Amino acid sequence: MSKLKVVTDFIRSLFFRLVLLFILIGIIPGVILRAGVLNSYEQRAVSIKTSEILSQAKILANQVVSNDYLNNTESMIINAELEQLSNIYDGRVMIINSSFRVIKDTHNLDTGKSILSKEVFQSYNGSDISKYDSESRYIELVTPLMQTDGKSGEKNAIGVILISVSTDSIALNMEYLDTNIYVIQLILSILVVLFAVFLAIQIVNPFKKMSRKIDEIQTGYGDDMLDIRDYTETIQICEKFNALLGRMKILDESRQEFVSNVSHELKTPLTSMKVLADSINSMGDAPVELYKEFMGDIGNEIERENKIINDLLSLVKMDKSAADLNITNLNVNELLEQILKRLQPIAEKQQVELVLESFRPVIADVDEVKITLAFTNLIENGIKYNKPGGRVRVSLNADHQYLYLKVEDTGIGIPEESLEHIFERFYRVDKSHSREIGGTGLGLAITRSAVLMHRGQIKVYSTEGEGTTFNVRIPLKYIAK
Ligand code: ADP
To answer: Domains of the chain by range and CATH?
Structure first.
């Protein structure tokens, strides 16, 4: 076996597919879960931090306004608060006045500069704005400094507080979480792979067992029955396999029986010839008449041998597939007339009356040689197994689908227990009688095979001592399957 074949065989195997399936089922959810856990942790951590800072910012905003910090940035309390806030959250706090100028920056970088960001503008409308930048790892928060107008009572933004804090701690937590999940996932994956292999071996095992048992049966060891009861499927396969095995055994037995029958039948005339030749030879100077008589008998035996061989050849031809049929569109009435004409001398010799009754013209798709053989055998049997003064009546009819042939005789009939055997090869009700009248026991087997090849049917009805009727039905149109 080539390496490539080994690999493709492995990939195509149930074992490999099961392992793959279990691994996918076991590992994919873990990967998705890991991404999901990390993502939701990040969102949750950012939202908690944002709302925490926002509430601090709001308190601060109130203090800034109430202390008029915009006009007096020297306020010690506010400055201390601002520093504390920026220290706690590892961030930067800026106070921006209504002219967008930074009046306080805890990092002392942008004091006095103007800030014209979108978030600052939006916050001037009175809303809190927050923004999370996961790449640069910071949260930016802008909350307005609202002052209530003494006269109208309206609230106006007189500035904003801008806070930006680093989210390094969240990222650090996430990294820690990620490593932990990764380790757990790795351990789980190893367990999943081991479990998948174990489970796949268990599932595939009955099939392996089955293959081994079939090998044993093939080589002749072990039982003759396959019995793997692990799954309903294996039980069903075993039942089907055993049925097939049974059929094969029957076929083998019938083949062996056929071969032994053939040898026996072919040997009988040879034995007779040998006996005849030996006895004439042992006589020394026997009269010429005796020689002639013995030679005549030997000639008859040769003729019989010839007939058996011919019948066997016909049977072998019938055993071939339907593809060997040579179908032509045939006038069956004419065909029967010819057969009867040919059999007329034999019938006359037996003093049997031969009658043909055609109910309508019948044209059918049939193999002329095979169907002639089949019909001839039936009519000839009617003559052969008849009594002097008896009759054989052949009638032909048809409907739109089938032709019907009936061969009815007033002969000796067939005992009931023999009826189911007469189509078997070499079966004869009365061996010596059949032999006497030149039967081989193959005629009806040939007939049945020919009829079945045409997808037809043959039935027999008989009463011992009164006569026999064969009914044949053949489709007018031959449909190859
Ligand atoms: P055979 O060459 O012996 O005639 P067949 O296969 O044609 O072989 O027939 C098998 C046996 O069936 C015959 O030996 C005979 O005993 C019986 N049989 C067949 N046809 C008839 C019939 N029309 N009437 C009585 N017996 C018959």
So the answer is: 15-173 (3.30.450.20), 224-319 (1.10.287.130), 321-475 (3.30.565.10)
3-state secondary structure 31-55: HHHHHHHHHHHHHHHHHHHHHHHHH
396-452 pLDDT, tens digit per residue, is 999 999 999 999 999 999 999 999 999 998 888 987 777 777 788 899 999 999 999
| Residues in Cβ contact with 414 at an 8 Å cutoff, skipping those fewer than 6 apart | 422, 429, 460, 462, 464, 468
CA of 427 to the centre of ligand 1 (A): 8
Q: How far is CA 434 from CA 274, 310, 347, 352, 437, in A?
A: 22, 17, 16, 17, 5
Write phi, then psi, for 85 (nearest 5 degrees): -60, -45
Q: What pTM did the predictor assign?
A: 0.59
- Residue 231 CB partners (closer than 8 Å, separation 6+): 206
The binding-site residues of ligand 1, defined as CB within 6 angstroms of any ligand atom, are: 377, 381-382, 385, 409, 411-414, 422, 427-430, 434, 439-445, 468
Which of these, 328, 270, 277, lies nearest to 302 by C-alpha position?
Answer: 270
